[in-house]
Specification:
Layout lengths: L11 H4 L3 H6 L7 H9 L8 E4 L3 H12 L2 E2 L5 E3 L12 E4 L15 E3 L1 H15 L4 E9 L7 E7 L2 H10 L5 H5 L6 E6 L16 E5 L4 E5 L5 H19 L2 E10 L5 E5 L6 H5 L4 E5 L2 E4 L4 E3 L3 E5 L9 H6 L5 E3 L22 E5 L11 E2 L3 E8 L9 E4 L1 H10 L1 E4 L11 E4 L12 H15 L2 E6 L2 E2 L7 E2 L2 H13 L1 H4 L2 E4 L4 E4 L7 H4 L1 H4 L3 H19 L8 H4 L6
Helix pairs in contact: 4-6, 11-12
Length: 563
């Protein structure tokens, strides 16, 4: 385009070559104790360029310039995590040290690591970061309630990782950043650099390790950003009960616009936790990690990390519309000509994700904290055996039992080699992130439920009228009607009958939901086949719960299915 004065319109920084780069190269404004911290931590301040809480646009530029990132047609940044496209639970370690060793639930989830090996890996991570031209620092908060929040510092070498944590942590104001001080927890992310397989305690070139004495996390050999998110959750899952005496939960939460009533949703992947907590009549407190405190409920995170597989504007408009400038699309395939993401393409991974600030959800409650105790807890399961009712009212003992069991099922096609429904029991609905013994969380949950007279519901979003392949999945419209009836109080006033082996209380009627759907036995044509599946699933529950039997009250033990 040529303007009347004859000079072609050119972006000013192109006329002044390297204008933006020259500004980027200005030294970061670190003075006093901040500067001293990085020097003492082993960072070569004469060589590296630190970018602290960099603007989103600058992180976009660096990711495109240095990391092969792409801007999608909607303005989101498409980036790639390399070889690892999911978490590496077998490579997660907790340092065995005096201050936390008696609290940690040691085993296959929390694998012991000695302090000396942690120091070796920490130094290896810092040595690697010292070789990078750009090192990114993001200072933010975990926890929306100022009484219980912690200050988190992330130090990494990829703009993608800095933007991810900018979205997932609670972003400080300029004033809060100026007065940030020393962090409570630090993540050293050198994920591009491998761990040494011959170092004691290493099982591969990947290592994700947390030291509760030093309050530090070191990441080597994986660039999957979700490791940082779950690292922060693991720390909160430890600190909230141990230091603050509050209950941390892997759950979503929302609050009624009119009554202000709070509901917590527990559920594993594929049960509908995110979908059902997104309700036009209610405000979203958060979609994944919360703390039930003495004064109310608050979100741990400042953003959402949503699955993108088969995403569409029709099915999940809130998530679809949140994918814009500032969001990160992770490992999503796109059309190279139009830059339009293809959410149905699993060519890179089925675990495609988007990370965006919670403010991008129009129905979000900002700040994400409510000074009110929950009225309802909804435990979600996707039962592929077609056995569990679509809704049951749980006694306090049953609530503890099902919280510890954390049941859902994998269906054929979700993973290679899955040919029939496979039960999955994830204790406290968060087994991969559990830090303390599950009984400790369950006890706190029971105490809070009793104190605040909270109703608890088990809702099955899985199959009815037959197991997977024979019956059909419970229509979402019916499940939403059930959730609405929980919130309106209809279900609390309904008449109930007892459901067989599982001894669950199920409503005899609910307007808008067919009678045969409410009682699974009525929905099955083959009653003998139904009874076989009931006994089969009950046996699976009994076997899975054996792990906790010695640590729970007899009433809780007897609250499960009785064969």
């Amino acid at each position: 385009m040529v303007y009347p004065h004859g000079t072609p319109y050119v972006t000013p920084h192109i006329l002044h070559k390297n204008y933006a780069q020259a500004f980027d190269a200005e030294p970061i404004n670190l003075i006093g104790r901040d500067l001293e911290y990085f020097s003492q931590a082993g960072f070569d301040m004469d060589r590296i360029q630190l970018k602290r809480n960099a603007p989103v646009a600058l992180l976009y530029e660096d990711a495109i310039r240095n990391e092969g990132a792409i801007i999608s047609s909607s303005g989101a940044l498409i980036n790639f995590s390399g070889k690892k496209t999911g978490r590496s639970p077998k490579d997660k370690r907790i340092v065995y040290e005096d201050t936390s060793k008696d609290d940690i639930w040691w085993g296959s989830v929390n694998i012991k690591l000695d302090e000396h090996t942690f120091e070796i890996n920490r130094e290896r991570a810092i040595d690697y970061l010292n070789t990078r031209d750009n090192v990114y620092v993001f200072d933010g908060f975990a926890g929306w309630d100022p009484k219980f929040r912690i200050k988190v510092r992330v130090i990494c070498a990829r703009a993608y990782h800095a933007l991810f944590m900018n979205n997932m942590l609670i972003r400080p104001t300029e004033e809060e950043l100026k007065d940030f001080g020393e962090p409570d927890f630090i993540i050293y992310n050198a994920g591009q650099f491998p761990a040494n397989r011959f170092t004691k305690g290493m099982s591969s070139t990947t290592s994700v390790e947390i030291n509760f004495k030093r309050m530090e996390m070191v990441i080597l050999g994986t660039e999957y950003a979700g490791e940082m998110k779950k690292g922060v959750f693991s720390v909160m899952h430890y600190l909230q009960p141990v230091k603050f005496g509050q209950l941390s939960l892997h759950s979503s939460a929302n609050v009624g616009k009119e009554k202000g009533d709070v509901t917590l949703f527990f559920g594993l992947s594929g049960t509908g936790k995110t979908t059902l907590s997104a309700d036009p009549n209610r405000l979203l407190i958060g979609d994944d990690e919360h703390v039930w405190s003495d004064t109310g409920v608050f979100n741990i995170e400042g953003g959402c990390y949503a699955k993108c597989i088969n995403l569409s504007a029709e099915k999940e408009p809130e998530i679809f519309n949140a994918i814009r400038f500032g969001s990160i699309l992770e490992n999503v395939v796109y059309n190279p000509l139009t830059r339009v993401p293809d959410y149905d393409d699993t060519g890179i991974t089925e675990n495609t994700r988007c990370a965006y600030p919670i403010e991008f959800i129009p129905n979000a409650k900002i700040p994400c904290v409510v000074d009110r105790q929950p009225s309802n807890i909804i435990m979600l399961t996707c039962d592929a055996f077609g056995v569990l009712p679509p809704v049951s009212k749980l006694t306090p003992e049953q609530a503890s039992y099902h919280f510890l069991a954390g049941y859902t099922s994998k269906t054929p096609g979700t993973e290679v080699g899955v040919l029939e429904p496979i039960p999955t029991f994830s204790t406290c609905y968060s087994a991969p992130f559990i830090v303390l013994h599950p009984g400790r969380y369950a006890e706190m949950l029971a105490e809070r439920m009793a104190k605040n007279d909270v109703d608890c519901w088990l809702i099955n979003t899985g199959w009815t009228g037959g197991r997977y392949g024979m019956g059909r999945r419970c229509p979402l419209a019916y499940t939403r009607r059930i959730v609405d009836a929980v919130h309106s109080g209809e279900l609390a006033k309904a008449e109930y009958e007892t459901f067989g082996v599982f001894n669950l209380q199920i409503p005899t009627a609910l307007p808008g939901v067919p009678r045969e759907l409410l009682n699974p036995r009525l929905a099955w044509a083959d009653k003998e086949a139904f009874e076989r599946e009931v006994r089969k699933l009950a046996g699976m529950f009994t076997k899975a719960f054996a792990l906790y039997e010695q640590d729970v009250d007899e009433k809780v033990r007897l609250a499960g299915p009785q064969i």
